[in-house]
Specification:
39% helix, single chain, four-stranded antiparallel β-sheet, Surface presentation of antigens (SPOA), 2 domains, alpha+beta
Length: 128
C-alpha cells in the first residue's frame, strides 16, 4: 500500500536519525581502530562532545485508554489499570524511540529505589 505524503514525511526523520546513528557508529569505530595516538586524542575529544549530549529516557510501564469523563473523575487514591501484567517487560524509550525492553528491579545500593535490568536490545531499523 502506498504511503501518503504525510506518512512519508513522518517516517523521514526516523530514517534520517537511523542513518546518522549508523554513520556516527562507523566514524567512532574507524577512529578507535587508528593506531596513531595523535589522531586518537582528537577523536576522544570529539566522542566526548557527543557523549555529553543529553537524551530523554523513559521507562514505559504500560498504557491505557479512557474517556475524558473517566479521566476527569480520577482523584487521589484512584487506580488506573494498565495494559501490561506484573512480570511483563517494560519498554525503554530514548527520544521517543523504543530501544530496549527490561524488567523492573530493586537497586542493591539503595533498596528504596528501583531500576531496570535490560533483557533485550532492539536493533535499529535501517532506512530504505
Amino acid at each position: 500500500m502506498a504511503k501518503t505524503k504525510v506518512e512519508a514525511d513522518l517516517d523521514q526523520p526516523d530514517e534520517q536519525l537511523d542513518r546518522a546513528i549508523e554513520e556516527l557508529r562507523g566514524v567512532l569505530q574507524e577512529e578507535e581502530r587508528r593506531p596513531d595516538a595523535t589522531l586518537r586524542g582528537a577523536s576522544d575529544g570529539n566522542s566526548n562532545i557527543i557523549m555529553t549530549i543529553p537524551v530523554d529516557v523513559q521507562i514505559i510501564l504500560g498504557s491505557t485508554e479512557m474517556p475524558v469523563s473517566e479521566l476527569m473523575a480520577l482523584q487521589k487514591g484512584s487506580t488506573v489499570a494498565l495494559n501490561r501484567r506484573i512480570g511483563e517487560p517494560v519498554d525503554v524509550v530514548v527520544n521517543g524511540r523504543r530501544i530496549a525492553r527490561g524488567e523492573i528491579t530493586v537497586l542493591e545500593s539503595d533498596p528504596s529505589r528501583f531500576g531496570i535490568r535490560l533483557t533485550e536490545i532492539i536493533a535499529a531499523t535501517k532506512g530504505v
